[in-house]
Amino acid sequence: MEFDIKQYKNAIVLDHPILKHKITILRDKNTKTSVFKNLVREISILEGYEALRHVKTFNMEVDTPIEKTLQPVVKRSELCFVPILRAGLGMADGMSDLIPGVSFGHIGLYRDEITHEPVEYYCKLPNNISEKEVYLIDPMLATGGSAIDAVKILKKHGVKRIVFICIIAAPEGVKAFCETNPDIPLYIGALDRCLNDRAYICPGLGDAGDRIFGTAK
Ligand code: PRP
Ligand code: URA
Q1: What are the extents of the domains in the chain?
Q2: Which three-class secondary structure state does DSSP give residue 92?
């Protein structure tokens, strides 16, 4: 039976021709590391722009050449961007392009090749992270294990408001993530068909970390 994402109210599949175009080039196995890296950054800007739509602003006084005026600016100090290492790092610059100066946390997870279960190897988060809205970023949502574990880590540190942004998701990952975290908005650039027997997304783009950092065998 076809996967019906509409049953998950927190999942948002973004639908813009420019985003689709960039993701198509990303999928191409002939796309070189430098182009791939740059596309991930651009895609992160496009997706982040949508995901940050509801972000809080406050009025700041600005002097225009004409007069003083009160105008909205984002509450940077209330935000935190958290990439899941390694591949999530590829999305970090794009998020920073949107709002420079937002603090970053880092969560290191890798998938065990046999079990496909995530293994934690690093975690460094701002001290006051529990007061912030966290934008968790990782290009791939495959089984969902890594994203679910990263959310657990954030919640253990007292974080109450989390948004997850990925570029490509598999139905298996969406189901697992949304059933575990129905309260967390999940922004998806493209929803793919399924996972293969190595838990890679089909058609997907291959190993995102390897393609961003040029470490493919
Ligand atoms: C990739 C990806 C996600 C994870 C998704 O990371 O960046 O973190 O796999 O898979 P899942 O949904 O089944 O958990 P990987 O483990 O390959 O590590 P890397 O980023 O260091 O390459
Ligand atoms: N991680 C990746 O980098 N790619 C996949 O297809 C699945 C997990």
Answers
A1: 5-213
A2: helix
State the CB neighbour count (10 A cutoff) for residue 68: 8
What whole-number percentage of the chain has pLDDT above 90? 98
pLDDT > 90? residue 189:
yes
User: Is 191 close to ligand 1, i.e. is its CB under 6 Å away?
Assistant: no
Q: Which CATH architecture has domain 5-213?
A: 3-Layer(aba) Sandwich (3.40)
Pick from 140, 165, 191, 197 the residue to mutate for probing ligand 1's pocket: most ligand atoms within 8 Å of its CB. 140
The closest of 168, 165, 194, 177 to 48, measured between CA atoms, is 165
**Which value, in Å, is the radius of gyration of the alpha carbons in the chain?**
18
Q: CB of 11 within 8 A of CB of 178?
A: yes
Do the beta carbons of residue 127 and residue 133 sit within 8 Å? no
Residue range 33-91, pLDDT digits in tens: 999 999 999 999 999 999 999 999 999 999 999 999 999 999 999 999 999 999 999 99
Tokens of 109: 């997870």
**pLDDT recorded at residue 2:** 85
What does 167-211 look like in DSSP terms, one character per residue? EEE-HHHHHHHHHH-TTS-EEEEEE-SEE-TTS-EESS-S-HHHH
Ligand nearest to the CA of 88: 1
Residue 22 has pLDDT above 90, yes or no: yes
Q: CA-CA distance, 117 to 134, in Å (whole number)?
A: 23
